[in-house]
Amino acid sequence: MGMKVKAKLKNGVINVKAMAKHAMTTYNQAEKKTGDRENANFITHISATLKSSGDTVFDMSTSQFLSKNPIFKFKFKGAEKGDYVLMTWTDRKGKTGKGKGKIK
Amino acid sequence: MERRKFLSLTLGALALAVAPASVRAEDYRKLKPTVWSAHTVNDAIKNMYGTTTTIEEGVKLSAPKVASNGGAVPVTFSTKIPAKTIAVFQDANPEAAVCVYSIGKHDVTEYSIKIKMGKSGTITVVVEGLDGKLYSAKQTLDVALGGCEG
Predict the structure, then answer these.
(1) Do A63 and B110 touch (CB under 8 A)?
(2) Fewer Cβ in 10 A, N or C end of chain A?
(3) What residues 18-37 of chain B have any CB closer than 8 A to a CB of chain A?
């Protein structure tokens, strides 16, 4: 699956808490553990769209310096309860992870 | 110009104009690779924005004064300034750039993340306003256990 997404609507604002399952291995960590910096792998891009409209509500380019199993908290407007927040991350090696959360 | 050709050109232009929002979102890893390899905060800001001049107002930033775990330092930041991008930097790791948010029309600009810091240092958040100006906030913190090697 790759991601857990929780979305709550309050006073017109949707509050999202999302967690990605990823080791987020830095270049230094890869070198220490395996002797090869190229084994570094971490999420480089993550975004969220609304199921209803396809609109992007979150878009982030990221580095090796986010924590392991990184947490993302963000807010947006313009969606209703029952809609879904669809999230996708891509990592340095091109792998992707997805998750979705119903707006409650 | 032939009427048919003119019509197809117009339709082509329309198709571009209504490109889905997801297409417009930027991947700054691809767009600006030198941001991510820069070692110092000033170099990373320069590579991202072309200048290091920022107005130190309008951005709220909070992180613990003492972080007990350098592998997961909680950072929260927000701004009311209408923004195009928001970028987070630090001087406690081999490279300075942590992340860049591409702000869309739905975004309420308040975010939280957890970051690694290899040692005590300063976090800097830069907001690129729609007005073309840069705004920033900084916080210096002590880190109890280095997070880069953890």
Answers:
(1) no
(2) N
(3) 20-22, 24-29, 36
